[in-house]
């Protein structure tokens, strides 16, 4: 069926992975897996329709993918063309009928999610979508209040997990105690080594200023209303606070 061929082509072109046919008893079934950790991210299986709870006779080609959101898994499993994981963990895997019921765009999106969920930590970090961070800046060690006076680009201590295209909101510590800047990360892993009793820098990132905030807009007292009471290192941002900052 064409939908199956389209899926095989998508995986090959997007992830440079070909299907592996492993079972002599089911020569039409196969798996797709990561080259590094060897984990499966999808499986092409053939099931009888009756084994899936359908009333018709005959077989049905399925694509099994991993789903990280339990609510999404429950929701999809109740829709036409989807079943709880056939021959796999029904709490984490979803079977998709390859009979044209489910649009190719939806199948590809679920393959992408499964690929990321089953990837190694290093690959997950590389492939993950851009994130938003709250990072500290101590005016005792750097004149951060005037750092962007003559430039929109600044080298800054790189926090663990931060990568290019991430957004950083810079919280300037006491006596300012407020978020002053929003910036986009444009380069990471710039070699740099500095250590003293108060600071340990192993690499720098280059950031581009996107927005300034007045100290009274997002002081620490306001951040506490969103559950942010301390900013000692890079941390995520509550969704409600991110909406206000944007």
UniProtKB/TrEMBL annotation:
Q: What is the lineage of its organism?
A: Bacteria, Bacillati, Bacillota, Clostridia, Eubacteriales
Q: Which organism is it from?
A: Eubacterium cellulosolvens (strain ATCC 43171 / JCM 9499 / 6) (Cillobacterium cellulosolvens)
What this protein is called in its record is MmcQ protein
């Amino acid at each position: 069926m064409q939908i199956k061929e389209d899926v095989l082509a998508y995986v090959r072109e997007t992830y440079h992975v070909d299907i592996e046919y492993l079972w002599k008893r089911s020569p039409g079934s196969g798996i797709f897996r990561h080259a590094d950790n060897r984990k499966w991210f999808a499986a092409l299986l053939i099931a009888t329709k009756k084994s899936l709870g359908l009333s018709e006779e005959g077989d049905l080609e399925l694509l099994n993918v991993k789903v990280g959101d339990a609510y999404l898994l429950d929701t999809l499993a109740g829709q036409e063309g989807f079943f709880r994981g056939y021959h796999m963990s029904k709490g984490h895997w979803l079977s998709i009928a390859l009979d044209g019921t489910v649009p190719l765009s939806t199948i590809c999106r679920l393959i992408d999610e499964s690929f990321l969920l089953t990837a190694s930590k290093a690959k997950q970090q590389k492939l993950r979508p851009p994130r938003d961070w709250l990072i500290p800046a101590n005016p005792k060690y750097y004149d951060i209040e005037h750092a962007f006076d003559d430039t929109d680009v600044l080298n800054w201590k790189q926090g663990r997990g931060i990568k290019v295209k991430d957004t950083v909101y810079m919280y300037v510590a006491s006596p300012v105690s407020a978020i002053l800047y929003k910036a986009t990360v444009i380069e990471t892993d710039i070699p740099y080594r500095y250590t003293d009793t108060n600071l340990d820098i192993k690499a720098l990132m280059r950031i581009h200023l996107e927005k300034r905030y007045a100290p009274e807009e997002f002081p620490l007292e306001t951040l506490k209303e969103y559950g942010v009471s301390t900013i000692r290192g890079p941390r995520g941002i509550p969704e409600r606070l991110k909406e206000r900052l944007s």
